[in-house]
Amino acid sequence: MIFIIAIIIAIIGAVPLGLVNLSVIETTIHRGHKPAMHIALGAALVEVIFGLVAIISGNILNRLIGNNEFINYLISGVLLLVGMALLLAKEKKNIKRQKVRFSGVFKGILLNLISLQVFLYWLIAATFLYTYGFEFHSPASLALLVMGILAGKMTILWLYSLLSKNVLSNIQIVVNHTNKLMGIILLVSGIIHFTRIQY
After folding, report:
1. CA-to-CA distance for 154 and 120, rounded, in angstroms?
2. 3-state secondary structure of 92
């Protein structure tokens, strides 16, 4: 179950177009699929570190805020506000690209390291996992988490590489639709969390 949940969380986090996704797309078009997958691997390794750190931090946070109504309401409010902001945001006309001189696995590592929103996403995900009873005390559960994160992240980046030409030609549409999707997910998460506090 942990393996499947980790895959789903990794996929949801990897779908929105960011620095890594754009780099994978552009590398596929200019250099081919294999170099793009090297970038994907580097990004996936950082994703695993983010996930593990978030799980450890999430365990501590869950103990601190488990029964704190104010903090729980605050979390629900943040999720709802960010979700609404993404849903109501104006369509982006220009997509910024981050230039990194390195290539291969190291480039993927650097691009994901500077994407702080990815780590924040995993912190929120970890808090939810603990809130709904998932435990990560054994090495086996952590191993399943790692494998799930790798599988989810690599699958999405592989798809972006496979569909690179189609995505690049419709990049503004893809960005706006993925933002809307993330907005809906955050709104639903906020509502579920708020409902759970009430009951």
Report:
1. 20
2. coil
